Amino acid sequence: MNNSLKNFIQASFPNTDSKHPIQTEFLSVGELVQVSEGDFLIDINEEMTYVPIVTDGVLKVTREDEDGHELFLYYLEYGETCTISMMYQESAVRVTAEEDTWVYKVPIGSINDWMSRFPEWRDFLMKAYKVRFDGLLQAIDELAFKKMDERLINYLNKLKAIKESNELNVSHSEIALSLNTSREVISRLLKQLEKLGKVELGRNKVILK
């Protein structure tokens, strides 16, 4: 068994042992897959037959409007799941691997069955819903109340935390796509931050000071 999956089970269901049905069924019905950096795990309008749980790595969740403009919503890290995928037969979001990521796919049917049988699973899902709801509120707050320069700094700091590094290998175009703005706007703001000594810019690279 993948060690990160084993750690996830122990952390998520601390009051159960390895013989408890929630643990044995969880391991028997799911599929552990690796998603390479930049690849889609879930695309918009894709039929949802499973719920993804991150056991190692990072996934990026985005929305897209009718004109194809993409908007960054939040990241999924270790132990987190995209609860939005439980609410729709077809996905309302796009989920992309920010880095090479291991994902445990749990069938929708099992999730619904466990809700009625295991209070441990209900507790896990309620915590997951709260985390995602808080993340969506934060995304809404940024869109409604924060200027683009603040959103840019917050986005770079999130990447820094995700990558555990001050050196971010990301292009201006990639940042602009995530923040639903133009590359020119991002380039201008990054140059301003560089003048202020807050970042150092390189080719497809941003170094936070």
Describe this structure in a few short sentences.
The chain has 209 residues and is an alpha+beta fold.
Structure description:
With 209 residues, the chain is of the alpha+beta class. The chain has 2 domains: 3-144, Jelly Rolls (Sandwich); 147-208, Arc Repressor Mutant, subunit A (Orthogonal Bundle), CATH 1.10.10.10. 44% of the residues lie in helices and 23% in strands. It contains 7 helices and 10 strands. The protein has helices at 3-12, 21-29, 108-117, 119-145, 148-163, 172-179, 183-195, and strands at 31-35, 40-42, 50-56, 59-64, 70-76, 94-97, 101-107, 167-168, 199-202, 205-208. A 4-stranded antiparallel beta sheet has the order 2-6-4-5, with helices on both faces. Strands 1-7-3 form a 3-stranded antiparallel beta sheet. β4 (59-64) and β5 (70-76) form a beta hairpin. α6 crosses α7. The longest helix has 27 residues, at 119-145. The chain is elongated, with a radius of gyration of 19 Å. It starts with a helix and ends with a strand. The relative contact order is 0.13. The mean pLDDT is 87.
Number of domains: 2
Our count of helices gives 7
Helix proportion: 40-55%
Reported for the largest beta sheet, the result is: 4 strands, antiparallel
Q: Spans with pLDDT under 50 lasting ≥5 residues?
A: none
Label the CATH architecture of the largest domain. Sandwich
Oligomer: single chain
